[in-house]
Design brief:
3-stranded parallel beta sheet
Length: 301
């Protein structure tokens, strides 16, 4: 006789018919992460992408509704101070025991009251070995970004028009000031106004001298094709670029750099708080975290 097997349809699942709105950075989600979560829960995930933490902040501060945001540490601190995110329901967050202690209870969110780590990494300098002299690299210094060999050239001497130089910098207030402060030998977390003013002037002169192109995710594909000489890069992007192009090198400057952590938070505007907690637990599960880390190149917490 015939045997009928009843399939579990999405309509029998707990979150069937519900929608989760996620706001994440571009190039920052594993291939199957969202579709696997949809299959597991029966919900639909809509993900918007931002270029920078600052762009995300503006939308959230203006009241745009999302269920989960994935900002960086310094921005989580700001969102918390301005009461734009809500404390997590600790009874619903079951994933913290799976997370490495070294990325828990960090200064921006003691006790992980508001956030669960998503990925972490470092900031360094990439350089194109076909364009940058090995001699210029060996000091492992921030000063490579000031080497005028790689600055913008004057195209029209009368109009003094510059083209963008052979350098990329990130459109990130945190990492721009970090770079300047570390180059000057200060703490990247200083609140000394004199040191911050010096860092501001360092950045201003760097931009005027070097004519960098200030971008975000454009760095990834452009440097996989070795379009510039050097620039600032996040470790996960460096991993991908180097896997695509053997002529790219990467180092972390000796004077120190930013070891950062991005986390998942639930904004006050969330219309689906239970599903948001479910998503955070799912992303932190071994299988999902493994897929995410393998795809984006950043370190899994």
């Amino acid at each position: 006789g015939l045997v009928f097997v009843q399939k579990t349809t999405s309509s029998t699942k707990k979150y069937a018919g519900q929608t989760l709105h996620v706001y994440n950075a571009g190039e920052y989600t594993g291939e199957n992460l969202l579709s696997n979560f949809e299959k597991q829960t029966g919900c639909k995930v809509v993900m918007d992408l931002f270029d920078s933490n600052e762009q995300m902040y503006i939308k959230v501060a203006n009241g745009e509704a999302y269920d989960v945001l994935i900002p960086s540490d310094y921005m989580i601190e700001r969102l918390k101070q301005e009461k734009l995110i809500q404390p997590l329901d600790q009874d619903k967050i079951t994933c913290l025991e799976d997370i490495n202690d070294s990325v828990k209870n960090l200064s921006y969110d003691p006790n992980n009251e508001y956030s669960v780590p998503y990925t972490w990494g470092t900031v360094g300098i990439f350089y194109n070995t076909t364009m940058v002299d090995e001699e210029d690299v060996k000091d492992l210094s921030w000063d490579l970004l000031w080497n005028e060999k790689y600055a913008g050239k004057i195209l029209n001497i009368f109009l003094n028009q510059k083209y963008k130089g052979d350098i990329y910098l990130y459109d990130s207030e945190r990492d721009s000031f970090m770079m300047a402060l570390k180059a000057l030998g200060y703490s990247m977390n200083t609140d000394n106004e004199k040191e911050l003013a010096e860092a501001y002037n360092w950045l201003l002169e760097c931009v005027n001298t070097m004519s960098p192109e200030i971008v975000t995710d454009e760095i990834i594909d452009n440097m996989a094709q070795a379009r510039k000489a050097l620039g600032l890069v996040y470790s996960g992007d460096a991993t991908y670029i180097m896997s695509e192009n053997e002529n790219i090198g990467y180092y972390m400057p000796k004077k120190g750099t930013n070891i950062w952590c991005d986390g998942m938070v639930i904004p006050q505007s969330s219309k689906n708080v239970d599903l948001a907690h479910e998503f955070i637990n799912y992303v932190s599960s071994y299988e999902a975290a493994y897929g995410n880390s393998s795809y984006v190149g950043y370190t899994s917490p």
